[in-house]
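Sample 3 of the quickstart, ligand L-tryptophanamide:
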Amino acid sequence: MTRVFSGIQPTGEQHLGNYLGATRNWARMQRTSDAFFCVVDLHAVTIPKAPGEVRDGSLRLAQMLMAVGLDPETCTLFVQSHVREHAELGWILQCNVSYGELSRMTQFKDKSGRHDFISAGLFTYPALQAADILLYDTNEVPVGDDQRQHIEITRDIAERFNSRFGETFVLPEAVIPAAGARVMDLQRPTDKMSKSLDSPKGTIGLLDEPGQIMKKIKSAVTDNDGVVRFDPEQKPGVSNLLSILGAATDREPAALAEQYEQYGALKSDTADAVIALLEPIQARYRELEADPGETARLLRVGADKARAIATDTMDRVRSNLGLLDA
Ligand code: ATP
Ligand code: LTN
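Result:
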């Protein structure tokens, strides 16, 4: 069976981009593969956080992942720091990737420009991400388009390790959805919708109320030529609405464009589709929120399943790397 792994950071509120680009696919893929999904709290601390923020964020994110459809009986859902092998392999892989390779990562360039304290961990982050993936002999990694470069470097690290130390890791492939892989900010449609952009009017939170969603989509930035056409280069705002409507209703954005003559109608249909898409998720989240103890228990069960595989991989890594047995 195909092994699937993906991770998501417990920072800020989940938004429509996370759902359409990543977690909706996770819910689909868990049914046909041996799937592992991870709340990557050690990635979140690359940018300094208050301790309580990470703890609460991890629990809330796990509940949101279940609300979008991840079933802990069907997939393995766990928190990264509960399986210590992630940090251990992360270190070893840091020693198998070069400063030059890490310097080319666009996510590092973007994020380091936005913070005063740039931790060494923010720079070496892709080695920890590679460890997450390679620990589980992963075949497929479902992610949004922005993660393409991190999956490429993971493959490069795995190939280098295998050629230096003998066959150790499986080479993973990115799985990027045809629709929704890059949802753009509604106010700045040339930037991707993101937790760290700090653009509340441009970001649709998965827990936003219907009225807020309608308001944000109605005030989305478009352009002045009044023609509905799918053309992400020339018409990023209108094309983003068509992409969102297409992803929410399983239709092609270019075909949808032919049905609209005015931006107003496109906006209200897009808002209605997003509200309908999020409504069952919000209802399920409210139920799960009521029982944090049960969520914590499910996460411990998930960590036990994950650890069983991760420890086997680490035995192989230690032996191939040539560390003295304990
Ligand atoms: P940050 O802005 O802090 O980097 P983020 O909003 O990008 O956070 P992550 O936790 O880093 O969210 O990403 C989780 C998953 O969501 C990844 O697979 C990522 O590719 C996907 N994703 C994030 N933003 C978008 C977006 N705007 N469109 C499509 N997919 C996205
Ligand atoms: N870097 C990713 C989150 C992430 C991840 C992973 C994704 C950490 N480890 C392993 C896929 C597989 C991000 O910023 N979205």
